[in-house]
């Protein structure tokens, strides 16, 4: 930087060819600045005499002095980034509005450097920095474009700036520059567009500016940074249902491009491609399209990775894809069961555990064949061994999955033989209402139409108060759903006609008293809500049926 100033003014500082063109204060500022630059390690250029010297050159009518000031600011801010005040920003802002390309390039570089600091990001926008930066984006000079877009990219990382940038008119030139032949400009522009996709309002502004087709086309870029920015931006855009419809209507190659990017050499691109597909798979159309476009093999490969972000993104994606009934068998046939079951024990990340068990539950929803495949693969044993020690949100998903599997008359004896009741019963007393309800629902489903009730007899008193304690708690609960599950389960037990179980139920004074109370409540209830009245009637009917069967035993 010092060399640049010395070359311009001539070695020796006073005999330069253009010296007569300078004002006295300008000559003094040049001399002072050269001294400061020689001692730059000890000099703070953002205040006092050093700043005044730079400001004198910046506000000069001499374009060469402006160039020197702009270059000095660019170099200083590259090595020393700190929060600065308006007095420091004003000369750079003045230089930013110059018609000289060299001044523009260096001034926007200085602003871009300062915009790394959060407070500076706000100050630049507050002082009106967006307007000259937008003008510079329209410059035919690639260097000017690159620095201006880079500065806006930095400014757009601050949440308070994003709305102002979206409303400033910057999105259209940013979208245009995303197609630049210069890779630096393209990277900066796509990075800026990505930074604008973190809120609903800004995403809509971006879509209106025509960014979607540009971002989709750049998925095929040879540059991994551009791929990453565009994939992540599209992933964020796909969060909105309306945007997904636009993508479905207009971007027919999107899914295929994202599936291809799951085989990228860049881990971060692979990860974002899977996340983008996950967001798209919130819609039925995309759930089917991803499978039909051969998206399952790369997702399975990512699922078996040792890199946590890849595992999380792929399991979240397959979870959404598994929602569609037509995808259940293809996912199982593609070999997902064993990896998903292994991930149930992934203690480092609860979200991975939740997505894995939720996927298994989805896969079990529609088909006896699929339920059998899941049980054959060892899912129930894994749940049995883990469910009492995992987080409550994982417990909720695990017990819900068991409840679905327990709907199968063929599989109920196998589940009971595995000892699943011994973990479900303690969970009916969980601090989580969801876990309580799911566990009770699973027990209820298991209780219906089985030949051997000895697994229930063996857990009558233990563990955790046993089946007896669970039924008492639920019958006495103020939650009508819980009352209904308990009394319905007792009816299934009584209809099974297991003598020991009949004896246990009829001998439990607390259970009998609670059932009588349900009948009495129904007689005296004056519920005016139609739905609540219907629930009450069904509970009362089941309670009466229970008493009748107990009296006949």
Automatic annotation (TrEMBL):
<feature type="repeat" description="ARM">
    <location>
        <begin position="87"/>
        <end position="129"/>
    </location>
</feature>
<dbReference type="GO" id="GO:0000329">
    <property type="term" value="C:fungal-type vacuole membrane"/>
</dbReference>
<feature type="repeat" description="ARM">
    <location>
        <begin position="253"/>
        <end position="295"/>
    </location>
</feature>
<feature type="repeat" description="ARM">
    <location>
        <begin position="294"/>
        <end position="336"/>
    </location>
</feature>
<dbReference type="GO" id="GO:0000045">
    <property type="term" value="P:autophagosome assembly"/>
</dbReference>
<feature type="repeat" description="ARM">
    <location>
        <begin position="128"/>
        <end position="170"/>
    </location>
</feature>
<keyword id="KW-0926">Vacuole</keyword>
<dbReference type="GO" id="GO:0043495">
    <property type="term" value="F:protein-membrane adaptor activity"/>
</dbReference>
<dbReference type="Pfam" id="PF00514">
    <property type="entry name" value="Arm"/>
</dbReference>
<dbReference type="InterPro" id="IPR016024">
    <property type="entry name" value="ARM-type_fold"/>
</dbReference>
<comment type="similarity">
    <text>Belongs to the beta-catenin family.</text>
</comment>
<dbReference type="InterPro" id="IPR011989">
    <property type="entry name" value="ARM-like"/>
</dbReference>
<keyword id="KW-0472">Membrane</keyword>
<keyword id="KW-0677">Repeat</keyword>
<keyword id="KW-0449">Lipoprotein</keyword>
<feature type="repeat" description="ARM">
    <location>
        <begin position="210"/>
        <end position="247"/>
    </location>
</feature>
<comment type="function">
    <text>Functions in both vacuole inheritance and protein targeting from the cytoplasm to vacuole.</text>
</comment>
<feature type="repeat" description="ARM">
    <location>
        <begin position="335"/>
        <end position="378"/>
    </location>
</feature>
<protein>
    <recommendedName>
        <fullName>Vacuolar protein 8</fullName>
    </recommendedName>
</protein>
<dbReference type="GO" id="GO:0071562">
    <property type="term" value="P:nucleus-vacuole junction assembly"/>
</dbReference>
<keyword id="KW-0519">Myristate</keyword>
<dbReference type="InterPro" id="IPR000225">
    <property type="entry name" value="Armadillo"/>
</dbReference>
<dbReference type="InterPro" id="IPR045156">
    <property type="entry name" value="Vac8"/>
</dbReference>
<feature type="repeat" description="ARM">
    <location>
        <begin position="169"/>
        <end position="211"/>
    </location>
</feature>
